[in-house]
Design a protein that fits this description.
Length: about 350
């Protein structure tokens, strides 16, 4: 994996605030990238991305961004996505907008499923553009077909006065759906979740991430006969405390010894072979922090695990449109991608 150490300008937390930037890429550094992108017809794996997309930020938003850059990055890859797991969509209409933009710019046809079609307002400090937030799954219809009756949604836990209680925000309602992979003739369960920011739970689990990984595991395994299970999350909880992995991540990642093992794997951890310095380079939101994760059931395998840098996305924008707002990023969060193998 080609890792880059970024120069951070500012840190944005809680789905709002400033812009994280890396050193700008000059157009003459782009070179030429042969465009051979195609739909994935390989029966052995799915191409999956996960990102908190920050309500598709634009230059005119209070918390500005350049969201199309990530889609242009996808155009530089061998395959268009089979799955894009997304957090912070404004509702069904914005998820459909994203699916349509992908369809307009990538090979394949796309559709979307959301947790809440019309989420309740949350009075975001970033203003109206981020007042409404829900989770979504964008999927390629030529590869995946939803299985009727398998959609489930659930509220997750937040910390409050030393306890874990159910949150009330629309953006923390998780989503699960089963699909038929019509190319591989397999059953796939996909999930999307956004955990709260509240750090007022028990001292041993202040962000209630242990409660939420337990709940998410139960929901994801609620469909029988799955050949593959994949879910993405903005956990608002890091994987590492500076000297050791946090308990919730130990429990989630089957590659790390733990008394509780939910038997999930992390493709970025696998791509890094567990190297902490490599994982730090794969930060997803500021100061080396990883709070965004892609997980798949441990019986499966992954390859090509990668965190999409802002430079890579900026360069792709220049390549396909001739210009880029280098001062703006596609989100405050960096996306990850992987091929998840049956």
């Amino acid at each position: 994996m080609n890792l880059k150490v970024p120069v951070l300008v500012s840190l944005a937390l809680f789905g709002c605030g400033g812009v994280q930037s890396e050193a700008p890429v000059e157009p003459d550094a782009l070179g030429t990238v042969p465009q051979e992108i195609a739909v994935n017809t390989n029966t052995g794996f799915l191409v999956v991305y996960n990102v908190n997309y920050e309500n598709l930020p634009t230059a005119s938003d209070v918390c500005a961004g350049d969201w199309q850059d990530l889609i242009y990055y996808m155009k530089t890859q061998a395959y268009s996505p089979d799955v894009l797991i997304v957090h912070q969509m404004s509702g069904a209409a914005q998820a459909a907008q994203l699916a349509q933009f992908m369809q307009d710019n990538l090979p394949g046809l796309y559709d979307s499923i959301v947790s809440e079609a019309n989420p309740e307002a949350m009075n975001s400090p970033c203003g109206p553009a981020k007042d409404f937030q829900t989770n979504a799954i964008i999927y390629r219809t030529g590869r995946l077909q939803p299985i009727s009756g398998t959609k489930a949604t659930w509220q997750v836990y937040k910390g409050a006065n030393g306890s874990c209680v159910l949150n009330t925000q629309s953006r923390s309602i998780g989503l699960r759906m089963a699909f038929t992979d019509i190319i591989a003739n397999k059953k796939v369960v996909l999930g999307s979740s956004h955990w709260p920011t509240n750090q007022e739970g028990p001292a041993s689990d202040s962000g209630c991430a242990e409660k939420n990984i337990q709940l998410t595991d139960t929901k994801m395994r609620g469909v029988s006969g799955a050949n593959l299970m994949v879910w993405g999350v903005d956990s608002n909880e890091g994987d590492y405390n500076g000297s050791a992995y946090k308990d919730w991540y130990n429990q989630a990642n089957s590659a790390i010894a733990s008394t509780v093992d939910y038997s999930w794997n992390d493709p970025i951890y696998e791509a890094c072979s567990g190297s902490r310095s490599c994982l730090d380079d794969n930060w997803t939101i500021g100061s080396g922090g990883r709070i965004d994760f892609l997980f798949f059931n441990a019986a499966a395998t992954s390859s090509h695990g990668h965190t999409v840098t802002f430079n890579e996305a900026d360069a792709a924008d220049v390549q396909f449109t001739g210009s880029d707002r280098a001062d703006l990023n596609y989100s405050d969060h960096r996306a990850m991608s992987a091929r998840i193998h049956y």
